[in-house]
Amino acid sequence: MIRTIFWKNDTVVLIDQNALPLAERYVACKSYKEVIFCIKDLTVRGAPAIGVAAAMGAALGASKLPSLSPEKFRQKFFAICDEIAQARPTARNLFWALERMKKVADLKHGESQSKLVRTLITEAKRICSEDIEINRKMGKNGSPLFADGDNILTHCNAGALATAGYGTALGVIRAACEQGKKLHVYADETRPVLQGARLTAWELKKEKIPCTLITDNMAGFLMCQGKIDKIIVGADRIAANGDTANKIGTYSLAVLARAHHIPFYIAAPVSTIDFSLKTGEGIPIEERKSEEVTHFSGVCSAPGKIKVYNPAFDVTPARLITAIITEKGILQKPFHIAIAGLK
Ligand code: MRU
Questions:
Q1: Residues 6+ apart with CB under 8 A from 280
Q2: With b meaning 16 or more CB within 10 Å and e meaning fewer, what string describes 21-44?
Q3: Do the domains 5-136 and 140-340 sit in the same CATH topology, yes or no?
Q4: For ligand 1, what atom is nearest to the CA of residue 233?
Q5: 5-136 CATH fold
Q6: Domain 140-340, CATH number (from 3.40.50.300, 3.90.70.10, 3.40.50.10470, 3.40.50.620)
């Protein structure tokens, strides 16, 4: 299995997703600031993986604090968590994981600092191992939606690399393949950062799951040609009504899917749901640097000083989503009721 993130000798080890597919190498973060840098520069990316990295980063930060009074320790630890929370704005899992770490710190407040630090490290490791279990459950729940011979389209990377392992959307595909179904996956390249071409195609090839790479603007034509049976993607944040933020380009796929009567599925853990947001309108959408659009592999492909708009995510309205696959089961419409039932 691909190891995306793990704790080793007081470092947070991450597979360098910027180096893939050309090189398979790991980065060892020795401080929480290095973890923040890796989240920002996409060395680690994908909502659940960002959550695990944040939790481990917080534990790492706690482990480096000097000896303090319980009150001061709490204050410093919370400040570290708040700093990590600034790394990226959209993925709900980042905030969810940090809230969980803060809760543990509060629960164990007053314990000796060394014991509390050990507890925080254990909690971060637990968030990591639980994520893999959750993905396997999601795979089991979602796999009956796929039939032998299906051609599935996916966007971005919602695989082992985007999680602690196994994947969300790719986890469902993986589970169906493990059950002996013969699936074929079309992977959107996913402009501008190419998570589909660099990461999804790499993962599927490694797993020997048949895959064809297409550019984003080909998806509609393939649907029109009857080449796509189902679409499945991951999520960065799901509002209480089912509106879903995911990688830019997801919304266009959902509109195309509706026009061609193709089922459109989301696969995400419950930790991606933001119960506090009534609709997707409140989801903060990250805007990334213009070079992601003006440059290709470091080479400029646009006129100098051109104005650029580069939102990293879009929001797909619940009405365009067929069902949401979670570890607790498949959520059907009306999503606001199904989601409220998860609380
Ligand atoms: O900018 P990224 O690469 O972090 O965006 C990731 C996505 O949009 C994924 O599809 C999403 O996080 C789901 S991953 C299981």
A1: 239, 241, 243, 244, 245, 315, 316, 317, 318
A2: eeeeebbebeebbbbbebbeebbb
A3: no
A4: 10
A5: Four Helix Bundle (Hemerythrin (Met), subunit A) (1.20.120)
A6: 3.40.50.10470
β-partners of residue 7 are 12
The CA distance from 313 to 37, in Å, is 20
Assess whether the C-beta atom of 271 lies below 6 angstroms from ligand 1: no
Ligand 1 centre distance from Cα of residue 249 (Å): 12
Q: Tens digit of pLDDT for each residue in 242-276?
A: 999 999 999 999 999 999 999 999 999 999 999 99
Using DSSP's 3-state secondary structure scheme, residue 94 falls into helix
Q: Which helix (H) or strand (E) holds 21?
A: none
- The ligand 1 atom at the shortest distance from the C-alpha of residue 167 is 15
* Averaged pLDDT for residues 124-143: 98
Tell me what the pLDDT averaged over the chain comes to.
98
- Cα-Cα-Cα-Cα torsion 207, 208, 214, 218, nearest 10 degrees, comes to -100
Give the CA distances from residue 81 to residues 21, 53, 57, 62, 77, in Å, rounded to whole numbers and listed in that order: 31, 12, 8, 10, 6
To the query of whether residue 10 is one of the catalytic residues in this protein, the response is: no
142 lines ligand 1 (CB under 6 A): no
**Domain-wise residue ranges, the chain:** 5-136, 140-340
CA of 238 from ligand 1 middle (Å) equals 13
Q: Which of 131, 188, 216, 236 is catalytic?
A: 236
Q: How many residues does the chain have?
A: 343
pLDDT tens digits, 29-84 = 999 999 999 999 999 999 999 999 999 999 999 999 999 999 999 999 999 999 99
